[in-house]
Amino acid sequence: MKNILLLNSISPVINDIFNSDYALSDKAENPVGIMLRSFKMHDYELAPETIAIARAGAGVNNIPVEKYAEQGVVVFNTPGANANAVKELVMAGMLLGSRKISEAIKWVDTLKGKGDEVGKLVEKGKSNFVGAELLGKKLGVIGLGAIGAQVANCALSFDMQVVGYDPYLSVTAALRLSRHVNVVKDLDELISTCDYITIHVPYIASSNKHFINAEMMKKMKDGVVIINCARGELVNNQDLLDAIKSGKVERYVCDFPADEIIGEDKVVCIPHLGASTPEAEDNCAVMASNQLIDYIENGNIVNSVNYPNCSMPRTTDVRLVFLHRNTANVIAQISGAVGKEGINIATMSNQSRGAYAVTILDVEKEVSNEALAHLSAVEDIIKVRVVK
To answer: Are 90 and 52 within one domain?
Structure first.
């Protein structure tokens, strides 16, 4: 029986995915895998048996991915599983940023108890909440991954002009985009010409904290509306408030409330509802479960955030999975060590990304514990698994 520890409540659809070989529990001991959503793992001690962690969602700032890479623990996320839910909230955020809807609703609540006067008061007061239409306005989408691409395509149906920027745009991502989305290579071109700007990049504390700051906002059009359903830390909140006071920024719609922006004029704070739909939770749970099972049972890695993707069909009954550092000659060392143990390689796959790499070998004989110990001792090998 393989134990799977649930550190958060996960959609019950996972009970239909894991078969009777698995036991799922929030009290599981010595788990081979862990599933979570927002649980903070930075001070969490893993059991020695744990080989993989699956985050039912895209963001992994609550998981020490580099630390776990050094321990040979593969961390998965579920990019795109909640993309539609976030896209819909972004579109709602654009309307909230245009039409003063949230302020108008709050004002209407103050009319409670006015009786027959409500109608007249509404007609008299509604002029305070005049907004703008999206038709014909220019939207800038920073980051054209699963969510950004959907936002860009959807905005076209509002008859908006759409400009996108993504220096890491893949061929797959580009194919998802409508041909009517103008992808630019210069970020300044986007931020200086757009009426609305929405952010869809992953937050990396070491490289893009306060990505949207005073310097960048100075380049934006006067009266720009900024929507942030990516991560709160991407925006410097004090710079943002200063830009609102100066008139540079007309409104800021954020899915990540912080004390300094709550209740501020022209700031709309949403309580992190981007992926809070049952459909998104089900999609994330299904994707996370399948990725975790495939790694446990086959050693295949898809959508890992700390190791490269690496997978291949099974061709033999025994598979060796090497998690190792991405150094010169390591493949030759692995092949040599396997040959020295008298193990013949049927098929092989290797992928690297940054400091880490994965090598999968389908082999034609059983691997003894002694042979496994010898293979694990090869220089720059972090972990070796035998998958049967």
So the answer is: no
What is the model's pLDDT at position 193?
97
What is the C-alpha to C-alpha distance for residues 301 and 281, in angstroms, rounded to an integer?
22
One domain for residues 197 and 109: yes
Q: How far apart are CA 188 and CA 165, in angstroms?
A: 10
- Tokens for 190, please give them: 């986007």
Same domain, yes or no: 114 and 257: yes
Q: At 138, phi and psi to the nearest 5?
A: -105, 125
Residues 46 and 191 both lie in one domain: no
Whether the CB-CB separation of 73 and 51 falls below 8 Å is answered with yes
282 and 384 share one domain:
no
CATH of the domain at 26: 3.40.50.720
pLDDT at 362: 97
Same domain (yes/no): 287, 327: no
Statement to judge: residues 126 and 240 lie in one domain: yes
In tens, the pLDDT along 166-194 reads 999 988 888 999 999 999 999 999 999 99
Domain boundary among 286, 306, 326: 306
What residue ranges of the chain have pLDDT lower than 70? none
End-to-end C-alpha distance for the chain, whole angstroms: 15
pLDDT of residue 345: 96
CA distance 346 to 13: 37
Strands (E), the chain: 2-6, 22-25, 33-36, 52-55, 74-76, 138-142, 161-165, 182-184, 196-199, 224-228, 249-254, 267-269, 318-325, 345-353, 356-363, 381-387
Q: Are 108 and 48 in contact (CB under 8 A)?
A: no
pLDDT at 171: 87
Q: What is the pLDDT of residue 250?
A: 97
**Length of the chain in residues, anyone?**
388
Helix axes 330-340, 369-376, angle to 10 degrees: 160
pTM: 0.83
In Å, how far are 97, 163, 319 from 361, measured between CA atoms?
Answer: 53, 44, 6
- Model confidence over 44-94: pLDDT tens digits? 999 999 999 999 998 898 999 999 999 999 999 999 999 999 999 999 999
Strand partners, 163: 140, 182
| Contact (Cβ atoms closer than 8 angstroms) between residue 106 and residue 163 | no
Tell me the CATH number at 369: 3.30.70.260
Residues 100 and 69 in one domain: no
Parent domain of 297: 1-81+278-306
